[in-house]
Structures are given as C-alpha cells and as structure tokens.
Amino acid sequence: MSGGGGSGRVAAAADAVPDYEVAELYTRVFCVGALGRGWRQRLGPPDLSLATEAAAEAAVAAELGCAAETAAELRAVCSVDMLMPSDEEKDPEVIPDNSSLLTLRIRKKALERREETIIVDRACRQETLAYEMESHAIGKRPDNPVDLVEEGELLLTLNIFYPVIFQKHKDHKPYQTVLALGSQKLTELRDSISCVSDLQIGGEFSSQPDQAPEHISKELYKSAFFYFEGIFYNDKRYPECRDLSRTVIEWSESHDRGYGNLQSAKMEDYTFNDLSLRIGFPYLFCHQGNCEHIIIVTDIRLIHHDDCLDRNLYPLLIKKHWLCTRKCFVCKMYTARWVTNKDSLAPEDPCFFCDVCFRMLHYDAEGNKLGEFLAYPYVDPGIFN
Amino acid sequence: MCSVPGLQADCEALLGAFQEADTVRFERFAELWRERRFHAIFYGRIRALERNKFAKKALELAQQYFLPPYAFQIRVGALYLLYGLYSTQLCQPKQKIRIALKDWPEVERFQQDLIESQHYDAAYIFRKLRVARAFHFTAMPKLLNYRTKKKIQENEFKEEFKDPSNRVNSLITNDVLEELMNIHDHYQKMKCVISADKSQPDKALSLIKDEFVVNLKDITLEHQEWQQKRMKLFLNAKEADEIPNGKEEGTSVASEGSERANALAKIKYRSYSAVVEASKSRRHRQVKLDSSDSGSDYGKSQSRSKKNSKRSQASRNRDSAKIRAGEMRTMKETVTRHVGMPVITEEDTSDEEEVPLTKRKKKR
Fold it and tell me: Which intervals carry biased composition (Basic and acidic residues) (chain B) (predicted)?
C-alpha cells in the first residue's frame, strides 16, 4: 500500500484537500493517494480501526477536561434512551396515527394509496436484486487474515457506463457500480469489467457451428486503456497487446489540436492511489479497439469496519443495470445465442435462436446444413444479468 | 437535493424549536425530540433498499446544518439531530454520516469550541459518535456523478438559522476602522507638511472628506442596528402569527411560505426590470425574459427534439450503412466465408418513438 503519511509529506497533503471546481458537479484534480494520507494524518487509530468491536468508552473525563462525576452524568444524560418516549413500545412497521411529522403524514398517505391500488405487496425482482447486490458483501471478513483490507485504505466508487446505443437508453445511460481499493492496480479493475464485446465471436459459422467458441474476442484482442487526466494507461501485460492510444495521441499532436500534451503509461504499473483525477468527472475505458465505456469516480473515502474487508472480493460489483434479453424466436424462452441473415427457414431477417432450436431447425441428424442461411454467434447484452 | 418530501420541513421545525428554546443543552433537545416522536420518522412499511436510501438522505440533510454558515446553536442542534437520526435508524448496518476532508478542520474547531466553553454534553455526543465510528471520512460531502443541469436546484435552507454575521460586518471590522483612522491621520499630517500653512492643509489638497472614517463607522453601526431590528421584527411576527393561530397551524405555515414567496417574487421582479427593452431596430437582439423554470423547460424540450432529430438521422445513416454493408457482404460472401458481422436491427419496442419522426423526414 502506498503512502503511510511520513512527515515529509505534510506539505503535499495540504494541497490534496479536494474541493469543487464546479459546485455539486465535479472537483479539482487531486492525487488520490494524497487524500488518504491527508485523512490518516488528521485521524487517530480509533477512527481508522477496523476491529469488530468499538473501543471501550474510557478516558471521557480526561479527553473533555471535566470531572469524573460529570463524565458519569453525561453518559446518563446523553444516552440514546433519552430520545425514546417512555410510554409504549411501538412496532416500526406501523406509522403512529397522531404524528406531527410531515414526512410521516406524506408517507402514510402514499402507503394508503398503494394499499388501495396494489394487489400483491412485495418487492419486485429488480428491487430484490438491487438490494442483494448492494448489500451482499457488507461486513464480510476474509477467512485468511492475510487478505484483510488494511486500515486507512481508500475505497473508490466507480460508475462504469455501458456503451449502449439503444434508443430507449438515450436519457438514462445504464451503468454498473464498482467498489475498488486505492491500492489495487488498474489492471485489476480492467479484468473485472464484464462487457459483451469481449465475448463476441467474429465471423460466419453456418457450415461449422461447433468451431465458433474458439474465436472469442477476449482471447484475440487483449489491448485496452483507461484515460484519466491526459494520460492513457495502456494494458501491456501480454506481448500481443497493442498501444491503442497511439492513434489518438498522434492525431492530437499532428496538428496541435489544443489537447495539450497527452501521455501514455502502462496500466499494470499504476494503482488508484497513484492517479490524479477529479471526482465526478467523466473518463474513459476503451477495449476491443473501439468499445468505449465512460467511467466516473463518484466517491472516494476511507474504508470502514462495516464495509467488505476481504481484499479478494474487490473490485466489488454493487450495482448493475438489468438489460432486457432477446429470446429465441422458436421457444421464446431461452436467451438467443445465434442470429441468422437471409435465412430461408426463418420468418424474419434477422432472426434469433437459442443453441438447441438453432441446431434442430438448421441441421439434420448428421449435422448437415439445411437450406440457405448465414449464421453468426450472438452474445446478448443481458447475459450478465 | 432532498427528494424525500417533508423531511426538510420536519428537521427545520425541530431545529427551529431548539433555536427558540435558546439553549444548547441536550436535555432540552431530547425533550423536543420526544415531543415530536422524531424516532418514528423511520417507521412505516419501508423495504430495506428504500430504508437505506431514506436514512442516507436524512443524515445528509442534517449534516449540512452541522457546518458553517449556520449559527453555533443550530450547529449544536444539528449535531444532536445527527446523533438522534444515526442512533434510531433501523438500517443494518447503520448508514454513516459523511464528512468531507475540506470540512474536517471546521468540525475539529467546533469540537474544540465546545470543550473550551464547557458544553460537555455536545462535546460528549460528538465524541460518542466518533468512537462508535459513525462517520465515513470522504473526499467530498456527496457522491458526484456529473449530472448536467437536470438536477441542479437551489438549496433553500432557512435563513434564520444562519449566523447574522454578514459581508458588511466581516469587511468593516474594528481593526479595519482603526487602521483607516491611522491612515487618515497620517494622510492629514502629510498634507499639512507640504502645505504653506503648516497647521492646516491647503484647500487644493482637500480631495477627501475629513470625517469619512467617522461616517463609515456610523453607517456600519446603523446597518447593524437595522439588521438586528429586522431580525427581531421577523421573530416577533412569527410569534404573533403562531400564538393566535394555535389551532390552525396551516395558516402560519402558509403565511411564512407566502412571505418567502413574496421575497422571491420581489427579487425576480427586480431582475426582470433590470433588463432594458431594446430599441426597435435592435428587437432581434432583445434579451429574453423567461421565468427561470419555464425557460429551462423550453431549452430542454428544444434540445431534446434536436437530439431526437439528430439521433434519427444518425440511425438512418447507420441503417443505410448497414444495408450497404449488407450488400457488400453478399457480394463478398461468395468469395470469402469468414468475413463480416451479422445484421442486427434494434428491438421493436425501442424503435416505436422513432418511427413517426423518420417517416416525416422521408416525406420531405
């Protein structure tokens, strides 16, 4: 983990207090690691502690500079019980009738309206899924203490947008939300991003449908880059990786287009702590040559003992968009795996099939092709649901 | 910013009552909290996802009163409110209070102030929250996701909660006045020195009013008095409103609301009248006077329709490109087998709104 807050870094940390560049929208550029150092310097071990149990309440008197009796009295006067009315124990499901709170009156009305109109009162599948995604890893601790997240580690929240061009998404671009640790490498995030374009299979396979799986794009084209604040971080882990950013940089330099001095670096050499960026500002992840995902860092904060503390579970997916799947035209049940064009056996062009129906319809028992058609493997964007 | 209806009103009512009680004791706050059964704010049939969201919103709202520019008393009230909301929420694990790094020095100073002025209950509660690790130490107070214009609305919090200190007072402090006085003396002496009559400056050098520092001081004082009087009037008016209408809460709320509305209307009116009507020859350059909301609506709808048409054209181009590609492919297909990608059109449902637009275009 980078940093540790040496005294020589005090000056650097002072500059690292992020603030708005445009209010409520995005911040000025700052170094992610310096934010962590800034907090660690200002806080004490009890604040950073990831232990399950909170520290015992001692030394109140000493810390506040009051008498011991006062401290004891404070404990009684300021207890949470003071906020609970003594008369009755209430069911949290029921809103009290005579509430003076506007929030509750509004909520009550909404609930009554729902009761009148709704038939079955339960969470819909999407809502259950969303809650499940959000909370499944909360409070998880690793079996092996080596995998425990370090105290004072930073936690980044990233929104990664899908590069969809569907008309129905023109107002709300779907995205997934991922939590990453400051000390993680960019490549760890890169490997965790699942995108259908990695699973695409190029080519037409009507005469040899069994060979299709050998041509998955992920295996063939491994290049990718992140773009943050004027620097392209290229994935160069494999010899066959190409510098995808070169074209852009050359284009920018060729006519002095006013994009400043764009640079490139190796993705595998950088952790999030090493980056300088703005919170709330759109950046880019590009893979498969031209599959472009907008990336926004929406939040950075210190890790908390209630968070998932198993380092291996990061980058942690906590939200994803539920995409509609295209179903097989024959069985109308399974997600499409094949698409055909100019198909003499199909009523539509293009026409979608699941694997079973596709083979049943288009090939005889010996696997010979029947009729005229072009067949392409199809990867549905909804397969990650 | 707060999309939970009523929540802000409830919090402000509680803080307002606390302000009126003219104390910073937690005991009094707890009394007010119990009177309102504020813990019940988390009650009702809410499912887990919604519950988390609500608790987050409530803490975010309360946290804003905890920081300047709010008056000391309100900030103490906000600390108690945070403590109450944090401890009585029903989420498991509890939602945390977000503190941004840039606000932290202010928070620490506040805690120091509390201890120094021996407000032990408030200091104890802050310490208790910290020991309970109720805070998320963040980079920024909120999550930022580059929402453009859509959601940027003014945060209208209660003016009365803010410190009465203002720009005039912060600009013209005693020190500044003293400094000015010194400079003025010095200036006067210099003028005497270079004048013919050493006891009194030349008339030609009289470029500034002699008693200007005194005047400035008087004006500042007057302003301060006026402000205090206004505050008092405002509070009295509120009381007067509330006492006779004990039963009908609605009217007092309405009058308060209408007061704000009037103030807003006045501001609006002033900004309207500030735009000078252009002469006829320049009518085409006339500055547009749309009311703020309808104006933004107008812009939005226009830009949307523009986007629509652009999009449809693009999709048309794309389609035609696809068709062309398709044709190319059929020509090529006979030669090579392995090239090419399938032709996939978008799903019907998503195209529905597009259809009439493209049709209209084609007719042209």
Answer: 316-336
